[in-house]
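Reminder to self: keep the SMILES exactly as supplied, no canonicalising. Ligand is zinc ion.
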Amino acid sequence: MSIRYTVVEGGTVITMDARRRVGRGDVLIDGNTIAAVRLEGDPPFDIGASTFLTVDARGCAVLPGLVQAHVHVCQTLCRGSADDLPLLEWLKERVWPYEASLDEKSMRACARLAAAELLLGGTTAILDMGTVHETDALFDALGRTGLRVVGGKAMMDHGDGVPARLRETTRASLDESDRLRRDWEGKFDGRIGYAYAPRFVLSCTEELLREVAARVAAGARVHTHASEQLPEVELVRRERGDENIRYFDRLGLGGPQVTLAHCVHPTVEERAILAARGTHVTHCPSSNLKLGSGIAPIPEMLAEGISIALGADGAPCNNNLDGMLELRLAALLHKHRVGPAKMTAMQALELATLGGARALGLGDRIGALEVGKRADLIVVDLETPHVAPSPDPVSAVVYGARASDVRHVFVDGRHLVAGGLLTEATGLERAAVVAEARAARVAAGAAV
Ligand SMILES: [Zn+2]
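Structure tokens returned for the bound complex:
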């Protein structure tokens, strides 16, 4: 008989609820849902005589799972093979040839390696951009691990230097995206969602972007890149006669169903457009630093009311998929320019939880520990030599803790990491996943 309730007991609960309550307490999980959050002084849980499992969270923070709203799981085997290059060379010389080489087997190896890293590091949900092919294998492999995923195949019907295997016709790109959405949305108990993923302006015809915008008008989600580097912005200006973000918006690619990764170089007018429309922006601090893209004006955009999330981007431009690291960097990166008081630990944590939830279109389901939300939560050890004796648990998590301090991870109420180890529910075994990735990389040969 399966036991209905789990109590995560005795930790410091960082709720991220509307009041941002933080305190010693317990979280009650009922199936896939948070049934109750009890902070000091609240009455005990009312679960009658039911038996329940307990997870000991003493000395730990209990908080919503991290949500990364811009990831390329399919690039994980290209980790370390595309270092120290600017964006357009990075894409044409390394990343696209690598993506063109992926087959079903290597895609599954990518997905399993990425999921192991993400889950062990406290990331419970991602917004993923796939490559052009093998998206069925990607969804299937990720779904089996228990991770929550909104994703879609990359759409590429235009541009220079695109390998033949990645070049699609407009019709084929749309048809395959529509089919994948029909086949995968809502699968794995609703943990899979679909977001159309036109790669970026320079990879897409205007016809394709207009067709995607028509689907947004009919309720679909979109995930793409915008204004990552200045040479890209200049090429968009020359090719389409407009600023990148304004161009997207003019075509109908704006609003709460649209998430734009990077936005490192928005104009002031474009920032006003993002704020007015409710378009989400995903800040990718490591990736922007490594590719030399610049530093996005995140504190300004936050002050202007723009919805911001965080993401690691892909392994070739990071080289980790580490939500804790992005959280710390997001809190640190802007202080040199705007002063130490502008991006607080709490603001950074909001981006990594609530902001991510919104960018995935799941703001009503995840991102906070509140009754009725899905039980996506993590337990992070604060009694370590590099974190203790921080008096403020939010500071401890943002500035002090590391991915390796994550002790427990629940997604949809399923216990996926226990005591810092992947559980059987993930179908992942750490050493086997790494060995499989290494073998797949060797098999891919020259492409990586
Ligand atoms: Zn990206």
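Points to follow up:
The pocket of zinc ion is lined by residues 70, 72, 225, 261, 313-314 (CB under 6 Å).
The radius of gyration is 21 Å.
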